[in-house]
Amino acid sequence: MFNELTGLHQHVGNFPGVTVDKKVGVTEIAPHLKATIIDLPGSYSLYPRREDEWVSYKVMMEQEKDLKVDMVLMVADASNLKRNLLFVSQIIDLKLPVVVALTMVDLARQKGIEIDVSALARELGVPIIPINPRKGKGVAALKKAIEHTAEEYYQAPVRDFINNQGLAEKAVSGIKGLYPDMSDYKAIHYLINHESFHIDPVTQEKIETIEQDNQFNHTRVQAEEILQRYQRIGSIMKQTVSGAKSNAKETLHR
User: Fold this and answer.
1) What is the edge-to-edge ordering of all strands in the sheet holding 33-39?
2) Cα 76 from Cα 6, distance rounded (Å)
3) Domains of the chain
4) Are 161 and 226 in contact (CB under 8 A)?
5) C or N: which end of the chain has fewer Cβ atoms within 10 Å?
6) What is the mean pLDDT of residues 108-136?
7) Does residue 15 have a pLDDT over 50?
8) What is d(CA 25, CA 8) in angstroms, rounded to the nearest whole number?
9) pLDDT at residue 32 greater than cutoff 80
10) Exposure of 22 in the CB half-sphere (CA atoms within 13 A)
């Protein structure tokens, strides 16, 4: 997908402080719109374990000082949709503009899986474009969706995918007292991983106090979040996907 969009207009470097490759390319989305595209390491959720997952995570959490995210282009595998939608739902709840490029649609059909893409897009509240980058199919439609999102025809859904504030109401409110414009879901990640973020010592201490005063339990909140996300994803898939084994057990790893 990255190569199809950027062609020869790309270069490779490292993210600051780590040995993880950073592929950067430039593409013309429309005659009046050029985009710099950064190919982030692949992830399945916003709970990083490996070094490369931490790179993607910090970019999504706006912790890379020289890198501002204007939009997230998420590549989702139609043949492994449930697992991919977990990550999509998390990015949506960060309130970042999102466009989903849906790949492997042909493979999904071979498995007997049919996806009502329009219905799925309505349920998620973000544009979803089926693509086959190797054959160049869907790329024009994807660029149009990116253009419309850049022009704010599409915006991040107002309602959260799940009730993030309800996962730790008082602690989330405390964080939003420090960062009023922050989404509820991003506030949860500040509670969990603030020690790894670029935050001044005074604010770090305030966040630590909010954690302790509200007995914030990282493991419990994370487990409850994932459970609620998969429950809603399962409900959405029952309405929009046929032939999928939507009742498969999911395992949470931290």
Assistant:
1) 10-14, 21-30, 33-39
2) 19
3) 2-150 (3.40.50.300)
4) no
5) C
6) 93
7) yes
8) 8
9) yes
10) 16
